[in-house]
Amino acid sequence: MKVFSQPEIGMKLLDHPGWEYNGSEITKCFEFTHYMDGIDFVQKIAAEAESNNHHPDICVGWCKVEVSFSTHDANGITDLDFNMALIADQLIQP
After folding, report:
1. What is the mean pLDDT of the chain?
2. Between the CA atoms of 42, 85, 3 and 72, what dihedral angle is there, to the nearest 10 degrees?
3. Fold of 6-91
4. Do the beta carbons of residue 60 and residue 27 sit within 8 Å?
5. Which of 27, 29, 78, 90 is the most exposed place for a label (fewest CB within 10 A)?
């Protein structure tokens, strides 16, 4: 499994608007109109993470959900993280 370098991560993030790299994971904060919309999103992303066997760190706040991915087994960022970022983005598409 290829671990991306910081320049490679920067290039790949161009295809993932709103996602940021903080040195150890890619993270995005999703905002919702209602608190329960965020909770619904968490349930959806949890199901996707389970089916893909790649689980994020999730922080739930008032109408905000922060999602972070890294590949712990590889000690870095891999295609698994970018694939799950895309899935997370698609979950909020109308």
Report:
1. 96
2. 0
3. Gyrase A; domain 2 (3.30.1360)
4. no
5. 90
Residues in CB range of 68: below 8 A, 6 or more apart: 25, 26, 27, 56, 57, 58, 59
User: Can you say whether residue 63 is alpha, beta or left, with left for phi > 0 and alpha for psi between -120 and 50 degrees?
Assistant: left
Residue type, 59: C
Query: What gap in Å lies between CA 12 and CA 3, rounded to an integer?
Result: 12
Residue type, 63: C
**Sequence-separated (6 or more) residues with CB below 8 Å from residue 20:** 13, 26, 27, 28
Q: Residue 93: is its pLDDT beyond 80?
A: no
Q: What pLDDT was estimated at residue 94?
A: 66
Mean per-residue pLDDT for 71-75? 92
pLDDT tens digits along 14-60: 999 999 999 999 999 999 999 999 999 999 999 999 999 999 999 99
